[in-house]
Amino acid sequence: MKYALVTGAGRGIGRAVAIRLAEMGYHILINYLSNVAAAEQTLAAIRERGDDGELLPFDVADKRAVDAAVDAWRATHPDAFVEVIVNNAGIRRDGLLMWMPEEDWYRVVRTNLDGFFHITQPLLKDMLVRKSGRIVNIVSLSGLKGLPGQANYSAAKGGVIAATKALAQEVAKKCVTVNAVAPGFIRTDMTADLDEATLRKTIPAGRFGEAEEVADLVAFLVSERASYITGEVISINGGIF
Ligand SMILES: NC(=O)c1ccc[n+]([C@@H]2O[C@H](COP(=O)([O-])OP(=O)(O)OC[C@H]3O[C@@H](n4cnc5c(N)ncnc54)[C@H](OP(=O)(O)O)[C@@H]3O)[C@@H](O)[C@H]2O)c1
Prior knowledge:
With 241 residues, this protein is of the alpha/beta class. The chain has a single domain (2-185, 209-235), classed as Rossmann fold (3-Layer(aba) Sandwich), CATH 3.40.50.720. The chain is 46% helix and 15% strand. Strands 3-2-1-4-5-6-7 form a seven-stranded parallel beta sheet, sandwiched between helices. Strand 1 (2-6), helix 1 and strand 2 (26-30) form a beta-alpha-beta unit. The N and C termini lie far apart (40 Å). The relative contact order is 0.14. It binds NADP nicotinamide-adenine-dinucleotide phosphate. NADP nicotinamide-adenine-dinucleotide phosphate (NAP) binds next to helix 1.
């Protein structure tokens, strides 16, 4: 069986990616933080299409929790190889740096940046040994450009972009690719509080993107056809640049 782990797969982009990779034949490990009902809906949507997966909740920001969950899963799946990791779990806690509560800085960095390290490190060794693997990190326009009110989020996503480029060079010889996908405004719970009518005027395509559009890009990067693409950051933002 081919396994793919998608963090934050309960809702939004992660759910769309999970469904899309399941269609490609992967058994999906559906990670989420606390919204069990949403994660169960992701699993149900996968099963409705005749594919399969399982729930694997943990907090990506908590290294011990990640290690415990990965170890427990491995104990019950001793021969399984997770050949795809989509580091998608992420949060925003926007505010001007001047007034930003310490907790908002650290929580965003721990989830978006440290989470990448917490998950990728324990699963990387198998990829190197088997000389095969795909790591896709969901970053953001904010991490490329820096957006006011998002110093924490821009820093975390910018950090993941740099780590993507560095790790790609470390593992390329072992046929493991590491890429980042940088969405602009995508219609999910994360952007539900934004004023879409005003913001769409700043987007050349004139609309927010859909999670499924991001999922199609991730699916291509995971596919065999993308073997020679690594260390890249691919924007999907309706032409905002
Ligand atoms: N939407 C956009 O416009 C946009 C733009 C650029 C980048 N992105 C990035 O795309 C990714 C997905 O965003 P989205 O819009 O789909 O978000 P979303 O709809 O808010 O969903 C976030 C998902 O991440 C999970 N999650 C959050 N914190 C977690 C943690 N500490 N450990 C494990 N899972 C956690 C949530 O779990 P629960 O359901 O249990 O809460 C949920 O499944 C994020 O990295 C985000 O930064 C989004």
